[in-house]
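Notes from hallway chat w/ T.B., transcribed later so I don't forget. T.B. wanted the structure written out for a chain they're using in a teaching module, and asked if we could keep both sequence and structure tokens in one place. Agreed to drop them here.
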Amino acid sequence: MRNDQIAAVFEELADLLEIQQANPFRVRAYRNATRTISSTADSIAALVEEKSDLTKFSGIGKDLANQIVGVVTTGKHEKLTELRTQVPDGVLDMLRIPGVGPKKVAVFFHKLNLTSLDELKQAAQEGQLASLKGFGKKTEAAILENIDLAAEAGKRISIADARLAADAVVEDLLAVEEVTQAAVAGSCRRRRESCGDLDVLATSASADAAMDCLAANSLVEKVLMRGETKMRVRLNSGVEMDLRVVPDESYGAAMQYFTGSKEHNVVIRGMAKDLGLKVNEYGVFKGEEQVAGATEEDVYAALDLPWVPPELRENRLEFDLIESGGIPELVEQKDIRGDLHMHTTATDGTASILEMAEAAKKRGLKYIAITDHSKRVSMANGLDADRLRAHWEEIRKVREQIKGIEIFCGIECDILEDATMDLPDDILAEADWVVAVLHYGLQQPRDQIMKRLMTAVRNPHVNIIGHPTGRIVGKREGADIDMKEFLKAAADHGVMMEINAHYKRLDLDAVHAAAAKDLGIPIVISTDAHSVNGFDVLTYGVDQARRAGLTKADVANTKTAAQFRKLISR
């Protein structure tokens, strides 16, 4: 088990206990355990296997250590299993509503006996929430505004969770002697931001052997359907997965067909028809004769097309690229040389400047920017001018302690609701790297949002706009931005755009990142890491960049440190 999987168990346990109005000290202990497990660079599973003493970690006592061992060795937590039977799934769904935490959910559950999003929506429409102690009409209106988004989020899982589950299943299938090929298909292979279900394809001398393997997988909660070559299961996460076992001669055609997207495949079928061919999941056919199908490359070649990277298969960019000279080589994770958005213990990070630099160096990065929060983010202990200058002095000291990686003095500076910057220009002028962001007031009218963004774009000290829309995938809509005007202004003033790599953000999205590329705006893929493990999300940002058709040349932090310094010296 990965650390984030283990942490998720204790986070859900804490949520359920708080909803059940359990002892707050107990809830806090589980939340502390979640933070500790998430922020450590050590593999908890490996430590359990080595029988290491887990009580060496802050906040982990003997009882919690034993619980962690149990989760790692069995994949389950006895108390969590019990609590899941006491609290309906629909109650937990309420936690997906922005601004609604376990305490509010506990009130809905215990005071109003609400057990689903539908029941909560009806109660809000009837004005029942506003009458509760500690609530009001404003809270009730906010819940009504966001509840449909929460319901939609429940039908999908993040690309991180999707990849984790699908890759684990594929790994197990490939260990089966009879299985010769296995891979993820569908929206997960296309690296969509979230997935409604999962698709896995395999070739095997025995379809039963492949399906038996999936049925026995610890991730599987229930087998929903099993046929001769197709099987559908529900995973413990609630998402459903299809396994299809196909013949070797059809594997490439099946991968192309089931990877999608539907829109991409419609164009492919039309092209095939124009050539007197037929394309389906079994192969490419001329009359009754199969002329391709064993590999995806053969399928595309039969249509006089280059192989199309899965991330591009949305009928958005790929066919225009082919017509205009071919699909370029898309950016890869190995191309990234720097990470320019991260936090330390100076604000809300869990590691020191040196620890973050060492972790980045260990991952092969050549330069980083430490970009702790400005003072507006008071909940994260944001930095005022004096503290920021002292912080930069600490960064300069660390530069002398570590070799092989360059560290820029940066700041994540809020663009305030009144369209001013959170720090004065004389301070920003001292920074090596300024990331301007919207954190608050995301629901302001478009005119005010644009006024704020233009303040940042026109500021001569701002290098980049971080997570530009402020959205949270499936949970919070981004700010209302006139993207055409915003990106044009950024291009005119030489301001870069960030793809925030965290799978909950992925902001800019692929469509707007492609638009930024067209305007010549350099893109930076950053992790926004808050711990030494936070660098792990880089892969999702690279996937998003590939979905936007970005090459190495389009991504500024593929440059060497010297090249990057030259780029930002304006």
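Follow-up for T.B.: The chain has a mean pLDDT of 94. Might be a good example for the class.
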